[in-house]
Amino acid sequence: MNSKQINNFFKNLKKKIKNPKTALKYKNKFTLLVSVVLSAQCTDKNVNNVTKEIYKKYFTPQHFLNLGKKRIQKLIKKIGLFRNKSKSIYNLSKELIEKHRSKVPGKFDDLIKLPGVGRKTANVILNEVFNIPTIAVDTHIFRVSNRTKLAPGKTPNLVEQELYNVVPKKYLKKAHHYLLLHGRHTCKARNPLCGKCVVYKNCNFKDKLKYV
Fold it and tell me: Are 33 and 92 within 8 A, CB to CB?
């Protein structure tokens, strides 16, 4: 995809997707961190359904440390991989208390050292609550970047680096929201809605004529 295509690609997505932001519901920086950890291999809707009651009572690292792993498990048992996630949430809560004065750090290197926090989670936190122009590559963004040839790469890390290289600076802050929502609602995995796609003319998907 050339620079003109890329610019038009994001220009058209911006026109269609107004004020994009995370679909996860949260109370503060810490609860967003917890929700993003919970969202791995799980829909945002499911996470929100589970956490809406939890965050009424528990919304600080100390709250979750006091709960302990077993009680956290019971609270999030409707979420996939809840045993591993409860362990991560407990351990990251403990580490935030011991190393960061119970505050979510605003630096990538600090975030990625927390239990259960990978590149995607760290970038979501930096973008959403620290207003830093990062790109968090999830399954939707990985698919859209490769399918459209916007930023092809064999791994999420390679796609992330290529996106930083090609996305115009004026769109960088909201780029991953545009791509995620486009992938979720239009550029779907099995049946992309190419006939209704606002970036159809700028997309290099080789089979797009089949879905018009």
Answer: yes
